[in-house]
Design brief:
The chain is mainly α and about 220 residues long. It has five helices and five strands. The protein has helices at about 30-45, 80-90, 130-145, 155-170, 180-219; strands at about 5-10, 15, 20-25, 95-100, 110-115. The protein has a three-stranded antiparallel sheet with strand order 4-3-5, with no helix packed on it.
């Protein structure tokens, strides 16, 4: 096969073009990768490290590093990756993503991606039970760097525990005292009201559609 092509795309004998180049690092390599990035950043030896004109008394964002990975200010070229492997023995999984491919990234694995052509991507963040511990540890790191925790791992764990408890309680939310019972009652009433309003709107749309069909038949 020629580079950038894959037979059978869409079942019509076509080919799938290359879309992006990925590098994904193992969780076990994060400490060595972090230390190496910080070392190279301090020496100014990264290929795409931003360099500003020095202005006395002014600190640019790229001059203050909170975290070598979470700052998302570095991109490692082939030269950088070769130096990383030579200095630390760390080597990422490198592969090409083609049209129609899906990439799953394990929790806690640093990664970088470079588009090789104009691309439109769809990304979904999720947490698998096996990676919950890594996501909570990452959340602590992000808070220390002043970076938003987009996965909201603690909230997801609490929500999952609540749903599990609801299933064990016969499908009903469990209450803990009068205040909890009152709050749960309001929540269920609001949900019932929203569901009723949605059903009424759906019924109205069906009525309008049926009326339009009848008018077309009469014509």
């Amino acid at each position: 096969e020629e580079e950038g092509e894959r037979p059978g795309m869409g079942g019509d004998g076509g080919v799938a073009p290359i879309g992006a180049q990925w590098e994904i690092f193992r969780r076990e390599d994060v400490p060595a990768l972090t230390e190496w990035l910080h070392w190279k950043w301090c020496r100014g030896e990264l290929t795409y490290q931003v360099k500003h004109i020095k202005i006395p008394g002014v600190k640019h964002k790229s001059e203050v590093q909170q975290h070598p990975i979470h700052d998302q200010t570095n991109f490692l070229t082939a030269v950088d990756l070769a130096a990383l492997h030579r200095d630390t023995g760390v080597k990422p999984w490198s592969f090409v993503q083609r049209l129609g491919d899906a990439v799953f990234i394990p929790g806690g694995c640093p990664h970088q991606v470079r588009n090789l052509r104009s691309c439109l991507k769809v990304a979904v963040d999720f947490v698998s039970p096996e990676s919950t511990g890594y996501c909570l540890a990452m959340a602590r790191e992000l808070r220390g760097c002043g970076v938003e925790d987009k996965l909201q791992g603690r909230a997801m764990v609490l929500h999952g525990a609540r749903l599990a408890d609801e299933l064990l309680n016969g499908g009903k939310p469990r209450t803990y005292g009068p205040a909890s019972e009152a709050a749960t009652a309001v929540f269920l009433a609001d949900n019932a009201e929203v569901a009723a309003a949605a059903a009424a709107r759906a019924a109205g749309r069906r009525f309008v559609a049926d009326a339009e069909e009848e008018e077309e038949e009469e014509e």
